[in-house]
TrEMBL record:
InterPro entries: Cyt_P450 (IPR001128), Cyt_P450_CS (IPR017972), Cyt_P450_E_grp-I (IPR002401), Cyt_P450_sf (IPR036396). The lineage of its organism: Eukaryota, Viridiplantae, Streptophyta, Embryophyta, Tracheophyta. Heme binds at residue 455. CDD domains: CYP71-like. This is Cytochrome P450. Coiled coil: none annotated. Pfam families: p450. Its cofactor is heme. The keyword Kinase does not apply. Keywords: Heme, Iron, Metal-binding, Monooxygenase, Oxidoreductase. PANTHER family: CYTOCHROME P450 71A1-LIKE (PTHR47955:SF18), CYTOCHROME P450 FAMILY 71 PROTEIN (PTHR47955). GO terms for molecular function: heme binding; iron ion binding; monooxygenase activity; oxidoreductase activity, acting on paired donors, with incorporation or reduction of molecular oxygen.
Length: 517
């Protein structure tokens, strides 16, 4: 302003009119620049619901946060600023914005914020799901993708899928013989199936030998979805002790740690037997066997301490059991609600298998419509409801500024129902996926998460879901109990880290003619 002051000071006295005009123009320019600065600042912060002291916007959520946030986004827009207690959280509900994040800012969004629960369960976030993006994370992901969950390894676990699914089919058939026209609890059966497949592949456990372990793992999944006062409203952190949350978390972490110690120790004792002469499991290695071999060969450096091993094993189990079981449960529920689609899927499966007495995994590649049904199930019932990212740098998304190390929630439930990305988004229409392949990741479709943090176990999960569903549709016809009308089937969900069906899925199995021969 010194230069401008000199200009004004040196104007002749008889130029008072010019001085007045100059002053007015200067004031107008200053005012416009100030107004623009205010508008720019406002534009860089997304719309936000009015918040309350201490709790922020938590009171505006329902018991189903994915639905509550979707409802708020209808008013405040596809990206909004939400206050979860004292923490600011950016919520994305648009397929276009999610696509922008994965295509433009994937590296920046490669980290995830961690919590008290994750730190306690996963040995200080030493796992793959919640460890910070960096060298350690890259090495762990490389281990999982190349050694544990590669196409070759997924194929090697075929025998486990076949054994467990065969046991499930036999169990349901036995039920039909002893309890004609009685429904089975498919929710319970599919959860047990998923648990047993993972117990065999990850830990080397036989079917039915892990009841206590199953309870601990399921409790851990529930705790991961529970509200923590310490995390979100620190001033009320003492409430976690009062509600028993901290006690349950500590007890569950201790149980899982003891159990995993026993598993690793028993594998180390059995190791000489597995690969010695006459060993009958040399071609049936589980995840623990593989990791121990890599450690012995010094192929993983210093990253795999025993604690790190346990964190990775927990990842594999917790990320796989509930998600795969829930996906299969919802698929059978959608088919029961849409009997014409079920008939079409069954006709395809039975045409492919023909008169054979067993479904081969090679048959699955010819079941195009079945895969479309699975894809559509994963669209309406995502394996992950809300994926949480945390940018490492200052980024601009959809014109809004997002500060580093803040939480960004990607509402996959809302994105998979975005009318700008999907025709008839609320309807179950498997045909929308015809002539596409499983790995397609079109804008707006993220069945296994997003970007670099996408679930590395997608092939493992897909193989399990495809084989189990093909068998259930081949060997049985399925009816709703008590002559229930399909429109009356309860399709309400309840949320932990996945959207389980609120009420158990009860269906009546009717053995198909192939089984009666």
């Amino acid at each position: 302003m010194d230069g401008i002051g000199n200009v004004i000071y040196n104007l002749p006295a008889d130029h008072s009119c010019e001085l007045l005009v100059f002053s007015l123009l200067l004031s107008l320019v200053t005012l416009l620049m100030f107004a623009r600065k205010i508008n720019t600042a406002r534009a860089r912060s997304p719309p936000s619901p009015t918040r309350l002291p201490f709790i922020g916007n938590v009171h505006q959520l329902t018991t189903r946060p994915h639905r509550g946030m979707h409802s708020l986004s209808q008013k405040y827009g596809p990206i909004m600023l939400f206050h979860y207690g004292h923490k600011p959280v950016y919520v994305v509900s648009s397929a276009a914005i999610a696509h922008e994040i994965t295509r433009t800012h994937d590296a920046s969004f490669a980290s995830r914020p961690t919590t008290k629960v994750f730190h306690m369960l996963f040995y200080g976030a030493a796992d793959l799901l919640f460890s910070p993006y960096g060298d350690y994370w890259r090495q762990m992901r490389k281990l999982c993708v190349n050694e544990l969950l590669s196409s070759k390894m997924v194929q090697s676990y075929q025998y486990i899928r076949e054994e467990r699914v065969s046991e499930l089919v036999t169990s349901i058939h036995s039920h039909c013989l002893n309890h004609k026209s009685a429904a089975v609890n498919l929710s319970q059966l599919l959860l047990r199936l998923s648990n047993d497949v993972l117990a065999g592949a990850v830990l080397g456990l036989s079917e039915g030998a892990n009841e206590k372990m199953r309870e601990s793992f399921l409790r851990a999944v529930e705790l991961m979805g529970e509200f923590s006062f310490t995390e979100h409203i620190p001033v009320l952190g003492w409430m976690d002790h009062l509600t028993g949350f901290t006690k349950k978390l500590r007890k569950t972490a201790e149980e899982l740690n003891t159990f995993l110690d026993q598993i690793i120790d028993s594998h180390e004792m059995m190791k000489p037997k597995l690969h010695g002469q006459g060993g009958d499991r040399s071609d049936k290695k589980d995840f623990v066997d593989i990791i121990l071999e890599l450690r012995k060969a010094d192929m993983v450096g210093q990253i795999l301490t025993k604690e790190n091993m346990k964190a990775i094993l927990l990842d594999m189990f917790l990320a796989g059991t509930d998600t795969s079981a829930t996906a299969m449960e919802w698929m059978m529920a959608e088919l029961a609600k849409n009997p014409d689609i079920m008939t079409k899927a069954q006709n395809e499966v039975r045409a492919v298998v023909g008169a054979k007495s067993k479904i081969e995994e090679a048959d699955i590649s010819r079941m195009e419509y079945l895969k479309c049904v699975i894809k559509e199930t994963l669209r309406l019932h995502s394996l992950w409801l809300l994926t949480r990212q945390s940018p490492s740098t200052n980024v601009i998304v959809a014109g809004f500024e997002i500060q580093p190390n803040t939480s960004v929630l990607i509402n996959l439930w809302a994105i998979h129902r975005d009318p700008m990305a999907w025709e008839r988004p609320m309807e179950f229409v498997p045909e929308r996926f015809l002539n596409t392949c499983w790995s397609d990741n079109k804008a707006g479709y993220f069945p296994f998460g997003m970007g670099r943090r996408m679930c590395p176990g997608n092939q493992f999960s897909a193989a399990q879901i495809e084989y189990a569903m093909a068998n259930l549709l081949f060997w049985f016809d399925w009816k709703l109990p008590g002559g229930m009308d399909p429109e009356d089937l309860d399709m309400r969900d309840t949320a932990t880290i996945v959207a389980r069906k609120e009420s158990p899925l009860l269906l009546v199995p009717v053995p198909h003619a192939y089984m009666l021969k």
